[in-house]
Amino acid sequence: MIFNNQYIQERIKKSETLREKGINPYPNQIKKGTPSVKFLKECAYIHDIETDEMKQDKTKSYTLTGRLKFMRIMGKASFAKIEDEDGLVQIYFNRDDLPEGYYNDIVKKLFEVGDIIEVTGYPFVTGTGELTLHCLEVNLVTKAIIPLPEKFHGIQDQEIKYRQRYLDMIMDSEVTKRFKLRSRIVSAIRRFFEDKGFLEVETPMMHPIPGGANAKPFITHHNALGVDRYLRIAPELYLKRLIVGGMDAVFEINRNFRNEGIDATHNPEFTAIEFYWAYKTYIELMELTEELFDYIFDTLGLERTLTYGEHEINFQTPFARVPWIDAIVEIGGIPREIAENRDKALAFLKENNLKYDENWTLGYAQAELFDEYVEAKLINPTFITDYPVDISPLARRSDTNPEITERFEFFVAGAELANGFSELNDPLDQYERFKAQVDAKEATGDDEAMHMDTDFVKALGYGMAPTAGEGIGIDRLIMMLTNQHTIRDVLLFPAMRPEAPVAQTSQVDPTKQCKKCGHDVLEELKPAKKGKGMFCIDVKACKDRASERT
After folding, report:
1. For residues 393 and 386, what is the distance between their CA atoms, to the nearest angstrom?
2. pLDDT computed for residue 506 by the predictor
3. Partners of 258 in the beta sheet?
4. Would you call 374 exposed, middle or buried from its count of C-beta atoms within 10 A (0-12, 13-18, 19+)?
């Protein structure tokens, strides 16, 4: 039973008491009050009132709504702080301003930190200079029956922050600000492409064949059709079908699903934008990517140099461009004769106890060298260009060197943010590339290799205009822009392992908690002088906690 807890039971009883007194703890016809930021801005003039008495303006009336985050009861008067979407506001109320008995019997006994309330009154400035609402009316909006974590320690368990993001947001306003910024970034990306004349489209989330990227898919089953379906790993092949159909510029801000590991930069489902542009090349995509970053930074008012962990990252455009093989040699430090020779590259991997497979082509061996020796060193925004054909099954071959493709990947802070290329539109070449991927799957057991998609090959057979396409990982981009080092901190509800079964909640041991405030961190408690019970070592913190509980 999730409510089998002493403190929760106490709050439930208070909720029942409210009903007995004719007060609905969950009323519905409440309108949102004046936003806190508007109240503080409009009433700032009160600080400048010239008077020997209290600075106040009884001619103004404001109604505020928010969650009680702090409450200090001092006899017949109380100070509290409520928080809405914009921030905190201090409020003050006393016994004589409220209906008879309301302060003593309702506010003092039945209102608690965590409750959502509505207050109406006039603004004044306290002796300490804080703009405050003097409340003439106080109403309950929502009774919280589960207590918030005590504010001095907050949520200590990182896993709870991810599992109970709502609680994380209640306790830490910076978390809410971060996710608001995420929404602004996504909106800016959408506006940028719309302003460029791209059309936003929606493509299937369930695919008959996994495709568009090298990744292991999730498999589901369609009962009515009696067939398996794959959650999309990328929308690429559907978006390019639209180019075949005559749409010249399309984009989709999409959710992708990949049945792979979870780590600091990978979540099984993630957000990306993919866009395809007819009559353009990968060179123009790199230029467009630079324009996009300039637009995002200008729109959000961000400095061009941002801190990311121990690095200062310079986002000033244009970004560096380094060919694939030069990156392995010059940045990775691998001798060119090894980097350009399959047998020597495989031998090098083996000698250095790195992952390798005797069936790998040179491109796959180079990819392992790149991952091991290059990627982590790409701190400032960098385009790595000219990828090998054998690891780029959807990219167009270079006209000057058929062993490489017109492809780039974009890296920041040692992580890939984007992948783009001039699209392969030769149906015969595409068929052979798919076939090579199928052969690689059979030879190496690579469950991430692409499947044969004959319908897509058929679509190319009708003719696709020269096209360039790119995908940008939005989650990783937001990590960079908000200085977060795990993808879970930029996802509202990240994937988590199943929670272990919760044992039957036992009653709180009164001998292991403070008799005054209920604090139960043993190292912060001391036994009573007469040996009866425990008390907090920090007396001030104990008083604050006790006042919050009342």
Report:
1. 13
2. 47
3. none
4. buried
% of the chain beyond a pLDDT of 90: 78
How is residue 519 written in tokens?
């604090």
Which residue is listed with tokens 């004046």?
34
Whether the per-residue pLDDT at 531 is higher than 70: the answer is no
- According to the model, what pLDDT value does residue 502 have? 58
Per-position DSSP letters for 286-336, written without gaps between them: HHHHHHHHHHHHHHHT--SEEEETTEEEE-PSSPEEEEHHHIIIIIT---H
Nearest to 118, CA basis, from 99, 87, 142? 142
Sheet with strand 227-231: strands edge to edge: 206-207, 227-231, 219-222
Lowest mean pLDDT among 207-216, 231-240, 446-455: 446-455
Specify the 3-state DSSP secondary structure of 206: strand
List Cα–Cα distances, 37 to 83, 139, 333, 385, 516, in angstroms: 11, 21, 54, 48, 36
DSSP bridge pairs for 435: none
CB of 358 closer than 8 Å to CB of 379: no
Report CA 169 to chain centroid distance, whole Å.
Answer: 12
Specify which residues 385 forms β-bridges with: 323, 408
Over residues 214-238, mean pLDDT: 93
- Specify the pairing of strand 199-200 against strand 249-257: parallel
- Angstrom distance (rounded) from CA 453 to CA 467: 19
Which residues have a Cβ under 8 Å from the Cβ of 232 and sit 6 or more positions away? Answer: 203, 204, 205, 206, 207, 210, 212, 254, 256, 257
Judged against a pLDDT cut of 90, whether residue 348 lies above it is answered with yes
Do residues 187 and 48 make contact, with C-beta atoms less than 8 angstroms apart? no
Q: What pTM value is reported for the model? A: 0.85
Which single residue is written with the structure tokens 């949102």? 32
Gap between the Cα atoms of 15 and 3, Å rounded = 13
Q: Which two tokens stand for residue 47?
A: 């600080």
CB distance 535 to 528 below 8 Å: yes
Task: Count CB neighbours of 98 within 10 A.
Answer: 17
Residues 6+ apart with CB under 8 A from 310: none
pLDDT value, residue 229: 95
| Residue 274 burial class via C-beta count within 10 angstroms: exposed 0-12, middle 13-18, buried 19 and up | buried
At residue 200, the pLDDT reads 98
Q: Are 416 and 375 in contact (CB under 8 A)?
A: yes
User: Which tokens belong to 257?
Assistant: 């699903």
pLDDT tens digits, residue range 68-122? 999 999 889 999 999 999 999 999 999 999 999 999 999 999 999 999 999 999 9
Sheet holding 467-473, edge to edge: 199-200, 249-257, 269-278, 467-473, 415-422, 407-412, 382-385, 320-323
pLDDT at 548 > cutoff 90: no
Higher per-residue confidence, 436 vs 370:
370
Angle at 452 between CA 447 and CA 453, to 5 degrees: 125
pLDDT tens-place string over residues 486-496:
999 999 999 99
